Amino acid sequence: MQHKIENLTVNNSQMELFTFLPEGEGPHPGLVVAMHLPVGHTGIENDKFTLDACKRYCDAGYAIACPFIFHYWPKEAEMKIKRDEFRDDRVIDDCKAAFDWLAKNENVDAQRIGIVGHCWGGRVAWVSAVNNPEYRACTIFYGGRIKLPMGENARKPIELANQMPCAVLGLFGNEDEGPSPKDVDDYTAALSAAGIEHEFHRYDGAGHGFQDSYAEDRYNEEASEDAWGKAIAFFNSKLK
Asked: Has residue 135 got a pLDDT over 80?
């Protein structure tokens, strides 16, 4: 499945949007895929894991829009700078632009769009979902920093759990330290207190990034494949 790149303008900055459309007649359900934060990252085109994830969801029948959320900096800039200067208000706009691209596509059902993210993207998925009431499903793979605000005047995403507009699936490794098992306890407590439907799964022997087959020190094939199955089943139940 070959992707296409759309060039959008968000906050006066050009953003690449990587798009994948499944074969066959639509309208298809859609997913915004929030990218992770690999070391030395210079763009989605060099991020094999994110591209593989997009293809896998597309093969499952979903139209995909994956925004390059680091477009506010030169691609060759150090990732530490991008991480330290990251702002929630801007990534909300980035993901909303991706959502709108899907919603306006004639081959996508605007009433059946979800969001998913891995690692840094897991946090982005939560932040985006609590700020967009039109999402119908949200999946978070080992997203950290949900208890921390990013950017001036930002609120802690966990404090916005009552704004979550949809059911949430969470997939976490028990050997992870960011988020730690205690962090995951806090995530589920916040969603429960807000009355948000959610389903969390935790894997023994799996740490952060356990789905990334390109990182041999992290990859856990058994946990990864089980999590893939749960994510696809979750989205199928909510969006198909």
From this structure: yes
